[in-house]
Amino acid sequence: MERTGFLEYVLNYVKKGVELGGFPEDFYKILSRPRRVLIVNIPVRLDGGGFEVFEGYRVQHCDVLGPYKGGVRFHPEVTLADDVALAILMTLKNSLAGLPYGGAKGAVRVDPKKLSQRELEELSRGYARAIAPLIGDVVDIPAPDVGTNAQIMAWMVDEYSKIKGYNVPGVFTSKPPELWGNPVREYATGFGVAVATREMAKKLWGGIEGKTVAIQGMGNVGRWTAYWLEKMGAKVIAVSDINGVAYRKEGLNVELIQKNKGLTGPALVELFTTKDNAEFVKNPDAIFKLDVDIFVPAAIENVIRGDNAGLVKARLVVEGANGPTTPEAERILYERGVVVVPDILANAGGVIMSYLEWVENLQWYIWDEEETRKRLENIMVNNVERVYKRWQREKGWTMRDAAIVTALERIYNAMKIRGWI
Ligand SMILES: NC(=O)C1=CN([C@@H]2O[C@H](COP(=O)(O)OP(=O)(O)OC[C@H]3O[C@@H](n4cnc5c(N)ncnc54)[C@H](O)[C@@H]3O)[C@@H](O)[C@H]2O)C=CC1
Ligand SMILES: O=C(O)CCC(=O)C(=O)O
């Protein structure tokens, strides 16, 4: 497997965590490799005739704390090494959140936007069939990530249930509310990012009210972060996607997100410029340089790098995406006094909500939306508080160091007590 920059960066962060936490070197040796990797090839009959075969993966990184858990990415450029990096992040994230889960991640090398609805369904069902021997509701529980959504989870859970011959609702999470899902999961990651931002804004400035925000990426995470941050009193003045940035100094009309639930990505950015008088800046990278209090990268990994970290004007960066900040950028931001709330803390709302949905599914029980959101919010608030306190105690550490060491402690203790190390 060829290592990508992303995997190198994640391993670099883990290695630093193992050193800072005073763990034995063998612990790093174990964590630096996934327990199991499955490579699959999925043939799909194309509408125009003929077949395309798509390569996919399911990486199971570590299950010391419980069943493997993590999303599935549909992206044309995703590699096996990226998937390993994402699976390692899931092990850390699930540990930090206090969930009874290990870490995993899946991926298919495909641009889902280029498939028809029928082709997408065939691919999703084909992927579920291909990984079926290695997953299960107490074994490995996938969910959405970039390029996948609740409809895709519905096809996958249906396919898996057909193989088993009975309904298995808990084998995939983030399903539609009509099919064993919980309405909170659709916005859970963005809601969690907003809660983490609000809690950190209280620490830095005494509150979130009136603080200006720029958000990169208007997919599932970005758009719901914008929605909830505005509800909490922040002023979202810029949002971006691959084609460019929508900017309005007085604050964007974020209600448009709720009113146009079907729209995401570039289409949503365009809506702000046509319906909300926002200025459109054609260069998507303009988002980094804006004079705002808070910047939320919520698109993809490796976007804040050594070459642009110096341009970030925000005092607080909250990682909605997984792995958006490279180690070099992290050092530059740290030296400039920019606080970075790390991915494994900030975007854990998605998997925390997945856990709540899974608990409902295993018991065939249903919680209502308000009750579930309250549970999610309490867990997020407690987790931010725990990591913040640890960070304050350890001079010279970044907030990521504090989060990773806290996550590693739980994993190490479980390995120790099980006799694995
Ligand atoms: N969906 C979830 O529940 C969770 C997602 N994440 C992470 O959050 C990030 C976003 O995920 P989703 O919102 O689910 O994906 P998504 O596929 O719904 O949206 C991603 C958006 O980012 C845009 N984008 C890609 N590159 C960009 C760039 N350079 N500049 C601006 N926009 C760009 C895409 O066009 C798309 O609209 C990923 O890193 C993912 O791993 C993390 C935790 C949970
Ligand atoms: O909800 C889940 O299990 C997936 C979450 C995920 O993939 C992530 O946090 O990156």
From TrEMBL:
Residues 181-419 form the Glutamate/phenylalanine/leucine/valine/L-tryptophan dehydrogenase C-terminal domain. SUPFAM superfamilies: Aminoacid dehydrogenase-like, N-terminal domain, NAD(P)-binding Rossmann-fold domains. Keywords: NAD, Nucleotide-binding, Oxidoreductase. Substrate binds at residues 69, 93, 354. One of its GO terms (biological process) is 2-oxoglutarate metabolic process. InterPro entries: Aminoacid_DH-like_N_sf, Glu/Leu/Phe/Val/Trp_DH, Glu/Leu/Phe/Val/Trp_DH_C, Glu/Leu/Phe/Val/Trp_DH_dimer, Glu_DH, NAD(P)-bd_dom_sf, NAD_bind_Glu_DH. Transmembrane segments: none annotated. The record marks 145 as: Important for catalysis. The keyword Nucleotide-binding applies. It comes from the Archaea. NAD(+) binds at residues 189, 216, 220-221, 241-242, 322. The active site is at residue 105. GO terms for molecular function: adenyl nucleotide binding; anion binding; glutamate dehydrogenase (NAD+) activity. Homohexamer. This is Glutamate dehydrogenase. It comes from Pyrobaculum islandicum.
